[in-house]
Design goal:
The structure holds two protein chains of two kinds.
Chain A (H helix, E strand, L loop, with lengths): L10 H15 L8 H14 L5 H10 L1 H11 L10 H15 L5 E6 L5 H12 L6 E7 L2 H9 L1 E3 L3 H10 L10 E4 L2 E4 L1 H4 L2 E5 L11 E6 L8 H13 L1 E9 L14 E3 L6 E4 L2
Parallel strand pairs in A: 1-2, 1-7, 2-6, 7-8
Antiparallel strand pairs in A: 3-5, 4-5, 8-10, 9-10
Helix pairs in contact in A: 1-3, 3-4
Chain B lengths: L2 E4 L2 E6 L1 E6 L4 H8 L9 E6 L7 H8 L5 E4 L10 E4 L5 E4 L5 E4 L11 H12 L3 E5 L8 H9 L3 E5 L8 H9 L4 E3 L16 E2 L6
Parallel strand pairs in B: 3-4, 3-9, 4-6, 5-6, 9-10, 10-11
Antiparallel strand pairs in B: 1-2, 2-12, 7-8
Helix pairs in contact in B: 3-4
The chains are: A alpha/beta, B alpha/beta.
């Protein structure tokens, strides 16, 4: 079968693509982990049925809409509500109560993807009676996902899993009270989305834009090489209030990083660190 | 560790055994692990399909059978000989050109994360003939595509003999679709380590 014939992609061809993206669109992916990036470019080339590397490159160079598709497909947008039950339990029981005394709670979800974690957080804040005085900043490199966050619409097929996660992480309500089902999708209640502010933000090139009490950046740094991880972590350090919290993914860590000395990990062992100096 | 000399730098030579298994693959993996001893100039990666649970049980089971260091694979880990890396549940495990590990939470492949296909393929691109892929018992077809790509890149292809696999579907799919260098059963496990074409590869790998 012709279409089964897998497209090949060499490391130097990946370099060529990355240079093009920088020259033409100003997007720098050179500090992304190469193995995953290469795999996703190859998947895109094969799904979009490009017969050769040259044709793929030409399209990417000359078609801005296709570049948007590239960014959408190359960045990983797999996320869940209340993923990692013990993490959300700790947020609910240990972290949010410590933020409760603040007049205004600012939270940054960096690399928020389609927003499942942002809505999870909004539910936690709502149940702690803190949502009214909170602002959730949801940023991502990919503008297409931010539209999804704005809409608050998620596939209905996931709700059973999310409801289980919610209950296991300490939720006491009927999870379905937070959304209205419409055909194959659910729309989350408008009051949950009202405190979410969306913006594009690129951890490669953009700087700090506010000071936060809590920053979540989960399963984003695993796609970065060490220098970009360090850059991102410095940015988070500079964007956190003293005694603010930084939350990372379950396989991410501050171990061996230059900002480690300024943070103390939460005693639960969850991937939550407090800025102490 | 075998060393070579390039541009006046001593450079490490790499050999990797990647073991992929699903339902019914633990018993044979434990037998193989107990053959791992001392200086074999070899690193091992284990990709098991399993539910999200804590990973210390496997580490413990492996550790008491070998003097290889056993750990859960972490992103940016340098792949060192004498070490067994266990892919964490719910992440894909890939290998970078500089012989380090990376993790990825992208879509499941064959309903699986970690996906054996992804790790086999990624390992083959870096290790080439320095890689041996071993596919064990299991109930789905994960691993077969990975074996095909690994084969094309000259890695050694090993498959558990489906006749003695607890769940033969996965190894049978492999046998049906990929030329196999060695069918592995309980009696020939030690042959894995003496495959003539499984040779260390130098860093950096040749490009193609």
């Amino acid at each position: 079968m012709q279409s089964e014939q897998s497209v090949a992609l060499t490391d130097s061809q990946v370099d060529i693509i990355l240079t093009d993206l920088m020259d033409i669109y100003g997007y720098d992916f050179t500090n992304y982990s190469r193995a995953s990036l290469k795999r996703r470019i190859l998947l895109l080339m094969s799904n979009d049925r490009f017969p050769s590397f040259a044709e793929f490159r030409f399209r990417l160079r000359t078609d801005g809409d296709y570049f948007n598709r590239f960014v959408e497909k190359i960045t990983v947008n797999v996320t869940e509500m209340f993923r990692d039950i013990s993490f959300y339990k700790t947020l609910r029981h240990d972290i949010l109560p410590l933020l409760a005394a603040r007049p205004l709670i600012r939270i940054w979800h960096a690399g928020c993807s389609t927003g499942e974690e942002v809505y999870s957080m909004a539910i936690l804040l709502h149940e702690a009676n803190l949502l009214n005085k909170s602002l959730l900043y949801a940023t991502d490199i990919n503008p297409a996902v931010l539209d999804k966050v704005r809409a608050g619409i998620f596939p209905i097929s996931q709700m059973k899993q999310y409801s289980e996660n919610y209950i296991l992480s300490g939720g006491k309500k009927d999870f379905s009270s937070y959304y209205t089902a419409q055909y194959n999708a659910v729309r989350f209640e408008e009051y949950l989305g009202k405190k979410i502010v969306m913006a594009t933000h690129n951890l490669v090139s953009d700087g700090s834009f506010n000071e936060f009490q809590l920053i979540l950046c989960r399963n984003v740094l695993i796609y970065f090489d060490k220098p970009l991880q360090d850059r991102s972590l410095r940015l988070f350090y500079n964007s956190l209030e003293m005694l603010g919290y930084l939350a990372l993914g379950s396989k991410e860590s501050l171990k061996f990083t230059e900002i480690q000395q300024h943070f103390k990990q939460h005693e639960s062992g969850e991937k939550i660190w407090r800025k102490v100096s | 560790m075998a060393k070579g000399l390039l541009n006046n730098r001593v450079i490490p030579q790499h050999r990797l055994l990647a073991i992929g298994g699903s339902a019914g693959s633990l018993a044979m993996t434990l037998k193989i692990v107990s053959l791992l001893k001392g200086q074999m100039g070899l690193a091992v990666i284990v990709i098991f399909h399993r539910k999200t649970t804590d990973d210390t049980t496997l580490i413990h089971l492996f550790s008491e059978r070998t003097d290889f260091h056993v750990k859960e694979a972490e992103e940016k880990d340098e792949i060192l000989p004498g070490t067994i890396y266990i892919a964490p549940a719910d992440y894909h495990l890939l290998i970078e050109n500089d012989f380090t590990l990376s993790l990825d939470v992208s879509e499941k492949v064959n309903y699986s994360r970690p996906s054996i296909d992804i790790t086999f393929e990624s390992a083959a691109e870096v290790y080439r003939q320095g890689l041996a892929c071993l596919l064990l018992s299991g109930a789905n077809a994960d691993g077969v595509e990975g074996l095909k790509k690994a084969r094309a890149l000259r890695a050694a292809i090993l498959v558990q003999d489906p006749r003695c696999a607890e769940v033969p579907y996965m190894p049978q799919e492999a046998v049906n679709n990929v030329p196999v260098d060695l069918l592995v059963d309980d009696n020939n496990l030690s042959n894995i380590f003496t495959l003539p074409d499984w040779r260390p590869v130098a860093n950096p790998p040749e490009t193609f």
